[in-house]
Design brief:
Largest sheet: 6 strands, antiparallel
Distance between the termini: 114 Å
GO molecular function: zinc ion binding
Pfam families: PLATZ
Keywords: Metal-binding, Zinc, Zinc-finger
Low-confidence stretches: 161-206, 210-224
Bound molecules: zinc ion
InterPro entries: PLATZ, Znf_B-box
Shape: globular
Length: 236
Amino acid sequence: MVGFTNRMPHWLEALLGERFFNPCTIHETAKKNEKNIFCLDCCSSFCPQCLPLHRTHRLLQIRRYVYHDVVRVDDLEKLIDCSSVQSYTTNSAKVVFLNERTQSRPFRGSCNACRSCDRPLQDPYLFCSLSCKVKLLLRSEGGLARELRECEFLPLPSSCELDDGQLTPDSILESASATSSGSSAGGGGGAGARAIRSTAGTESLAQRRRSAAGRPSGPEVVNRRKKGVPTRSPLY
Ligand SMILES: [Zn+2]
Ligand SMILES: [Zn+2]
Ligand SMILES: [Zn+2]
């Protein structure tokens, strides 16, 4: 790692070393407090609540895809060439992984594999992630000068502000995204909403049981009719 920082920009080293999607320590009690924005000027990550402090800075939105941090190719291409990194299309956005993912089984085959970590890849690609590309280039070329691009202005897409940035194309994704469909019954604050969401499954089951037990009551109508009939004895 000696001399590592001399050969790559600080922001890139920080980006690849950062742990995203942890709660922001400044906004511990806020609703959307996952650190999913990276500031290239401050070389740090923060949550959407922190945005006002970085308005004029160059910002990169981090998303999650199959438990790993990804960024949109459109954004990353403004900073560094990533055409040789395998991309994935999800929610109509092309994304690439920031870091290599641990592999469950070692890959030994004749197919195309990541030049850095041996992960199997689709054909035209050379790297599984940005970090694999960076690592190899630092090793083979001693720098990234030819890959880096000048970028003076990198705003967040307007749609992503205070958005949790979670992509949900696959069912494997963490259920961290706030799906508030059908939880309108309880109301209440953030903590309450979270509790409702986590017990939603059992609640609906109980409701189903209740409606099954209470059958439509027909006999009531018959009783009312009986009462209406005058029963006076004619003999006295
Ligand atoms: Zn924050
Ligand atoms: Zn900043
Ligand atoms: Zn790799």
